[in-house]
Amino acid sequence: MSQETGGADAALPQPGDDRAAGAMVRADLVAAIVFIVLGAAILYASWTMPRLEVRRIHPMTVPGLVPGLLSFALVVCGGILAWRSVRAPAPGGWQSLREAVLSREAVRALVVAALALVYTLGLVGTLPFWAATAVFVFAFVLVFEVWLAEPRKSWRTSLPWAMGLAVVTAAAVTLVFERAFLVRLP
Amino acid sequence: MFEGLGLLAGGIAHFLTPVSLFNIAWATLLGIVIGALPGLTATMGVALLVTLTYKMPPDQAILCLMCLYSGAIYGGSRTAILLAIPGTPASAATTLDGHPLALQGKAGLAMGLATTSSTLGTIVGIVALALIAPLLAEAALKFGSYEFFWLALFGVVISGQLTAMDDPLKGYIAGIVGLLVAMVGMETLHAYQRFTFGISALGGGVDLIPAMVGAFGLAEILGVMKRTVHARIVSSADRVVPRLGEVVKYWRTTLRSGIIGTFVGIVPGVGEDVGAWASYAAAKRSSKEADQFGKGSQEGLIAAETGNSAVVPGAMIPTLTLALPGSAAAAVLIAAMFIHGIRPGPLLMVENPQFLYQIVAILLFSTLAILVFGLSLTRPLLTVLAVPRERLMAVVYVLCVVGSFAITQRMFDVYVMLTFGMVGFILREMKYPMAPLVLGIILGDLLDLNLRRGLLLTNGDPTPFFTRPISAVICLIIVSTILMSIPAVSKRVRALFTRDRAGGSPA
Fold first, then answer.
1. Given 3-state DSSP classes, what are the helix, strand and coil percentages for chain B, each rounded to the nearest 5?
2. Taking Cα atoms as reference points, which of B170, B59, B182, B204 lies closest to residue B432?
3. How far apart are CA B471 and CA B465, in angstroms?
4. Which of A162, B269, B430, B498 has the greatest number of C-beta atoms within 10 Å?
5. pLDDT tens digits, residue range B447-502?
6. Which domain of life is it from (chain B) (predicted)?
7. pLDDT tens readout for residues B343-391
8. Residues B328, B61: contact at Cβ < 8 Å?
9. Which of B211, B224, B239 shows the shortest CA–CA distance to B328?
10. Other C-beta atoms lying within 10 Å of the C-beta of residue A149
11. Interface contact B390, partner A, CB < 8 A
């Protein structure tokens, strides 16, 4: 089944495509297991959801009906995905998946996620919003221009930019939203 | 017919005020800039602007959002031509011929043609919107719970099928996950709270705007920052304003692409990118210069740009008449309309017929603004492209936080944005399309309520879902769509047709 998909309309083959495809096949398997577990959990929750017999509602209109049907569909789709992924040949798939997860690109995405999490869950709420924003913008620019950039910029050139942008963003966002649009900020 | 023209004139006159014209100008320009910046998409722009237009009168708010939407779909072409990076997914097909043209020293011509094609595409779509929407709205008045259940399901299935071109299964999964997200919170038939786990904030369900800001904002930031490659801007020296001959030379392609784009727009949840690819493929198939496609064909560029722009008005057809979003950005527009007390759906033409023609007028104005800005502001837009993404993305994330917080003023929505951003990023990396997910969130309620309401009306008997004529047709389309996405089935069906043709017997 999966052999058919790469046929006529396949994109231009590029070096590294095979490895990426292998990693994707294995990633599909992991995702499929997550979908099956999620689907099964929702199916159970829908089945055990109160049927509101006391209120004498029609048994075909119970609140759990649609979530139950949907989660069943999710389990089926997850099953097909898993079956397809197991059958597809993916030599070195696990290896390339591990490399993809530990690649430089993944590290960059993780750093963005970490900065976003620290800012949103940690700084906003403990500091005033403008201060939290300034710290976040400053850190973000410095991290990606000096530490994770290729080629790296010297911190001497980035520092003024980072500070300037941090101050301008913090001031502009606070003024525009609180004064002009009368929105309360977190 | 004449009543329609009168309403259209009313719509145009309605926005001929200084405030409206000012709003049209800045929103369209902002849209072009957002579209041109890689990593900022039309959907994300519209979702973030909802916050800023929150306090405006409804007509002005929708005006700004629509202008930003069509501006952004156009703006992506700039980046596609000069950087070979689509500014938004909608301009991916533009890259194929636009960038080679720029490399040949015809960047100005490419930008000019992209601008005029966008305008012409939008106009084709606008004509279709003004003609089809009233008819569809009238037909939709006969729709009952049964039909709306199937329509909701149809929207998610077709979006799943068409936005994940090579792997519909992932599209379906994304759609189902979206529908399941919509199940969280109070259901409307018996007022029972589902899957809230005792968290009171979940009682109202997951709001679309923060979810969209996450899935199209944060996820996009993660995707953009992940890459380390830098693109080089091709300089342009030739004239930008194209000659009339160059514009009308491929009028067949323009018209065909406009119609294809409009049609793709009408299909729920299938957006500008598919419109561009579909009309590009059609143009290539019927072109006399097919070998030039991909090497700097003006026809290919025209097809791609006309196709993606025509999707915007086309998408408004189901959005306004059925409350079925025609594209991901249209889903945000629906949410924004609800915020401003406008209820899209079959009753819109009864309760508020002038609104449809206001939308038509808005699109006309925005496309004029695009034409003017696109042909005049070449240099300033170049500087926009030079903004380093390290600095831009930091500011965009701050806007994501503010944008998801500001509408209901609770931190819960910011957490929703974060969750959808992270999960959305992982799903995107594994090639799951986001459009069906979004469509699922917005259509989940419709599907759930209408299925159970239909069953309640018939005392638990599901037959009307299959025997009412319109229901039966939509149901058949859904079943055949799903069946055709199974490779084994579609192969046999195709073999059947080719054998028939070979044997000379008509199918």
1. 75, 0, 25
2. B170
3. 6
4. B269
5. 999 999 999 999 889 999 999 999 999 999 999 989 988 888 888 888 887 766 55
6. Bacteria
7. 999 998 888 888 999 999 999 999 999 999 999 988 888 888 888 888 8
8. no
9. B211
10. 16
11. yes
Find chain A residues with C-beta within 8 A of B183's C-beta.
66-67, 70
Strand B193-194 relative to strand B185-186: parallel, antiparallel, unpaired? antiparallel
Cα within 13 Å of Cα(A39), Cβ side: 23
User: Does the predicted interface ipTM exceed a cut of 0.90?
Assistant: no
Is residue B164 classed as helix, strand or coil in its secondary structure?
Answer: coil
Q: What is the DSSP letter of B265?
A: H
**One-letter identity of residue B170:** K
Count Cβ atoms below 10 Å from residue B381 Cβ, excluding itself: 20
Q: Read off the pTM.
A: 0.88
Cβ(B435)–Cβ(B219) below 8 Å:
no
Q: Which sequence spans correspond to the domains of chain A?
A: 2-101, 104-180
Q: Which of A77, A105, A124 sits opposite B169 (nearest CB)?
A: A77
The answer to whether the CB atoms of A70 and B399 lie below 8 A apart is: no
**Nearest-CA neighbor of B271 among B214, B240, B315?**
B315
Residues contacting A71, CB < 8 A, separation 6+: A38, A39, A40, A41, A42, A43, A46, B180
Length of chain B equals: 507
